[in-house]
Amino acid sequence: MSATFKRVMKNGAVRFGAIVLSVLLLIAVLAPVLGTVDPAWLDAVNMNQKPGEVVDWTGPDNQTAPRKLLMGTDSFGRDVYSRVMYGARVSLTVGVCVAVVSLALGTLLGLLAGYLRRVDGVLMRVMDGMMAIPGILLAIALVAAWGASLTTVIIAIAVPEIPRVTRLVRSLVLTIREEPYIEAAVSVGTPTWKILLKHVLPNSIAPMVVQGTYVCASAILIEAILSFLGLGLPSDIPTWGNIMAEARVVFSSAPHNMWFPGIFLAFTVLAVNVLGDGLRDTLDPKFNKRGEKR
Amino acid sequence: MSAVLSVRDLTISLPSGADRPFAAERISFDVNAGEILCLLGESGSGKSIISFSVMGLLPHNVRVSAGEILLDGENLLALSPEALRAKRGDDVAMIFQEPMTALNPVMTCGDQLDELLAEHTKLDAAARKTKTIAMFNAVTLPEPERIYASYPHQLSGGQRQRIMIAMALILEPKLIIADEPTTALDVTTQAEVLSLIKTLQRERGTAVLFITHDMGVVAEIADRVVVLQHGKQVEAGSKIQVLTQPREDYTKMLIASVPSITPPEARQQFSGAAALSVNSLCKTYTSGGWFQAKRETRAANVVSFDVRPGETVGIVGESGSGKSTVARCITRLIDPTKGEMHLGETRLDLGDRGQLKQARKRIQIIFQDPYRSLDPRQRVGDAIIEGPLNFGVSRDVAVKRAEDLMRLVRLSPDVLSRYPNEFSGGQRQRISIARALALEPDVLICDEAVSALDVSVQAQVLELLEEIQQRLKLAIVFITHDLRVAAQICDRILVMSKGNVVEQGATRDVFVAPQHEYTRALLASAPGREFQFAQVNAVPGTA
To answer: Which domain holds residue A104?
Structure first.
């Protein structure tokens, strides 16, 4: 496993993605000690301040002191820097959780559909039906039905991703089940569930990890879209999407409120996608340019 | 005679980190006009990389580090890429192993030749078509007009390879490089294609550099032979000299490894109860039904035979003959449509799951492709003990047995904790044998078990199988397309064609006095059947 890890880390794209994401992860974890204030706190005196301005800032403890506003303030007088730093928490949590949830469920369904002929037809028609509904629309409907909280947002974004993962895993299983080593396992009397767990699953891990990164990137974007539309988390929990939503009204006078979360969002999604491309190049033998021996 | 191609001290270096520094080292040979030179070698001998270097098609990280390649006295290595491209096609053409991948699937065969002519000649469209059709006639393609408008997938393997030959010849090159051109073909088709290449080459006086691993093919087609091993030139000379009076140990070992097509005189007689008895086995595939007319394909039609303990029954036939279908029915990887199968006293064809699981223990299979028959993510030790663990053997006992089996297949028990990618093809096949034997079966099915192996490795694996059979009194069903292997290892033979058993009997009877027309055609097609190879004993320590 460590040999695989070393080989993967040799890839420039993987290293770039991993470094950017590590920095973002540090920001999310260390948000309280990075010179931030309570992101929900508003100082009504300092509304729509420009980035870099030094102002007299009244904090949550009612003490007034000079403070440098790295990214300015929004139209309520909240510190954009603090909100963007804390916003990383929501984006990363949603991205990772959605990837894990949809991969877990999609893999389970895909394995069943690919290996058991009887459930294949019914299950895949249900999946086809789900794919006929635009993912964002389904997510909006689900959030609207359940009310916005971190859990519901994660589930609402994960559900439309499940059919895509299922399809991928099913196609992998259909290829792998024809391999002679599966037939060899059948002929030594290995039960079906064991074949799925011990032979099929380990051999489909690499493409699934790659798919996981794409799911993660799209989940981060969809969460931002939901928040931007006002359907995501309430605005006392800062997310990059709802920071931009509030900035939309005052965009012409205070564009920085839009720029900073936008840049962070773009970089995060870019890093995840680049990481995914790098993993695909190194893990998926189909994309192995050197033509290594089988 | 003048040399068309002259390779002088050619050295091709591999990138650092490869298993050896040079893909080919100080290789020198000439190919004269009107002559076929065979580069003979096992996998990893560097024979293909030499042909790629002549075509200027080396991978970007592999380069020629010394020597020269002269085509009509002109050094190809000194040419610019443009000049080399003009030479390809005009002066040098190539025939590849796999015609399906070498032909463009979205162009008709006629268009592919037409494109070549349009690129390299000044002929008008009508003249190009006439020339193409004439070429199709020359490579004995039936209905050239129809083939002209056909796509590659609509043709058979042999027809596709004829198209490739037509493409190679149409610009009348001085040199043709044929890289294993018949390896992917059935034996009867191979015989036709080989004789076609030979006839056309004689008529046109073309020089041919023919790359192969098959001694039979060399005996059939070569004028001169260069033997390669690990990128080094072992021996060179005329065909007669190399194949009948080899000087080098490696060549002797190669020749000794080629199984003779004449079966040995007296094989043992087997009596007693059959270990496996197959009675009127049928497998029919149905396609269509709802929207299309129903179509039935009979993959196996009324196949019956018995195998006794210690006996080897061979099933020979070409691709599509149904021999693998029979193997997969017997092992119940697929369900037979009709017929009875008995494993000793147990019915094998009934649906009872518990009974089937117990039967699986007693019948094991070894597959053709050693690279795909082991799970790449499973340690070989785990693969071997998987079966015994399924049947409730304790882990300690299973591991102990796996260690014994590794010794039996002449591998070290220390390698049980490694993954399959650390082993060569021959070693993997031994591991597959160990896995099959771990359940102590009564019957072993070998589905083309040695076909993917080099001839020297093949000889070792066959010897191993025979030794194990003697020791464990195994009944073996040996499925192969290779008549030489069948002649040496089988006690009785079934010849299959298009799902039917056309002939069965004792090996010697079938080979010496074949009754059925198809058997005769099959035997007549075996390459090098009339050639008397040198009678040498394998030199120990050269494998």
So the answer is: 2-42+73-293
